[in-house]
Amino acid sequence: MSDLSRSTHTGRPRVVVVGAGFAGLAAVKALKAAPVEVVLLDQHNHHVFNPFLYQVATALLEPVEAANPVRALVRGLRNLTFRVATVSDVHLRSQQVGTDRGVVAYDYLILAAGSVSDYFHSADIAARSFGIKDLGEALELRNQVLSRFEQASWAADPVERSRLLSFAVVGGGPTGVEFAAALAVLVEGSLAKDFPSITREEVSIVLVEGSEAPLASFAKGLQRSAARALANKGVRVESKAMVADVDVEGLLLKDGRRIEAATVVWAAGVTANPLVESLGVELGSKRRVPVTATLQLAGHPEVFVVGDLAEIPGRSKQPLPMLAQVGLQSGGHAGRAIEAMLAGRRVARFRYHNLGTMAVVGRNDGIAQIGPLHLSGFVGWLAWLFLHIARIHGLSGRFLVLVSWISGFVFADRPVRLVVGPRKAIPHASQTAGRPGGADAIELPSPSVATVDEWGPAAALAWWTQDLPGRERT
Ligand SMILES: Cc1cc2nc3c(=O)[nH]c(=O)nc-3n(C[C@H](O)[C@H](O)[C@H](O)COP(=O)(O)OP(=O)(O)OC[C@H]3O[C@@H](n4cnc5c(N)ncnc54)[C@H](O)[C@@H]3O)c2cc1C
């Protein structure tokens, strides 16, 4: 039984926050002076700055520049306990959450467990494509890209070389566009120098989008500017292309067409974390939890749902988009709302302030839509840079990223193109159980993660990031 399974003995109510992402961290910071005991739970020991994941996947940033240990970020919060735990369900009646470390009791609950990639219920698509949803996936993708170039350098047959160097990116939202553009920059820059025997013509990058054009949420002029930037970088865009299946040779489209690709990257959207299923409430769009105007769960004023997990009514009656700003603002609101409830004050409605949407389309090129202001090219990229630097949690993180970008801007060739993997077999927890300091000493991801031969670098990275990929790929 965990020491958190019963109510607090401190006389202060306990607020349990599930998820140390944008929303969860904003919530615990808002509660820092509140007369409560805060318990923050996350499945990982680190907070990930998702907007930078595509840069990790394209060897522009190191993982440490896109993630921070949670314990370092919450160091100054005296009323907070952080624990690594995977939350599996929520028991609304008994006011407990179930975790892999036992149950944790709460007086107030803030659910901020974010979202997962949406593979449209296809196990094949999930197994055969690469996601960019967390640090483990981004590193796995970086290894895949670099390994394909290493394999192609051995291939004498030009057809086989082109096959190995074919990449399809599914999803023309900001994540897909940013990844495709950054991959083109990597290919033209560092990889052209690293692999002088491979020509740009042998590499194909296709961006596959179901609607009329990529970046549909941006104004038409900005869409055109991004399309030009992609074309200049040699990224082919296939619009109105709905994916039916992914196989070992590439994509099958719903209209019967095929797109050959040895590497398929899946950036076709997200859906709320499956944790929401245990709430037993009717779910909304993208399986998000509908919340009241104060971000509470109807009938359970002690429960707040925030960030990507929540379907928050917007001004136009459309739910708010799944964005970092929504996470930050809604998480902060939930923290302040609990403080208000404890002080006997009325809980205010949540008001979202749209700070604009942005996307990067390659090196020093971006688009930004900030109210009526539409920026593109270098100015759009600068707007993106400053907004994102300001959002990174922790001063050291901001400094690290700024230094990396400046060095990337000046030298355009950062030496982060490592394919890393373990040298010896990783024992499963059950093999170490019973030994002193055995199973509890280190949490290993899965019995199936056995040797480098079986799983290669992906397993090493999964182990390192404590995030099991569980995929079968070629
Ligand atoms: C590749 C990528 C790029 C993006 N780029 C942008 C961008 O440029 N601009 C923008 O505004 N938005 C962007 N987004 C969206 C943005 O990152 C999300 O909207 C935001 O992270 C949501 O915040 P959140 O706190 O709800 O979830 P997250 O930040 O995802 O945090 C959820 C946390 O919950 C933890 N967790 C999950 N399940 C469990 C569990 N069962 N038990 C315990 N802990 C759990 C996770 O480990 C994570 O730490 C991007 C997203 C991705 C994936």
UniProtKB/TrEMBL annotation:
<dbReference type="Pfam" id="PF07992">
    <property type="entry name" value="Pyr_redox_2"/>
</dbReference>
<dbReference type="InterPro" id="IPR045024">
    <property type="entry name" value="NDH-2"/>
</dbReference>
<feature type="domain" description="FAD/NAD(P)-binding">
    <location>
        <begin position="14"/>
        <end position="331"/>
    </location>
</feature>
<keyword id="KW-0285">Flavoprotein</keyword>
<keyword id="KW-0560">Oxidoreductase</keyword>
<protein>
    <recommendedName>
        <fullName>NADH:ubiquinone reductase (non-electrogenic)</fullName>
        <ecNumber>1.6.5.9</ecNumber>
    </recommendedName>
</protein>
<keyword id="KW-0274">FAD</keyword>
<keyword id="KW-0520">NAD</keyword>
<comment type="similarity">
    <text>Belongs to the NADH dehydrogenase family.</text>
</comment>
<dbReference type="InterPro" id="IPR023753">
    <property type="entry name" value="FAD/NAD-binding_dom"/>
</dbReference>
<dbReference type="InterPro" id="IPR036188">
    <property type="entry name" value="FAD/NAD-bd_sf"/>
</dbReference>
<dbReference type="GO" id="GO:0050136">
    <property type="term" value="F:NADH dehydrogenase (quinone) (non-electrogenic) activity"/>
</dbReference>
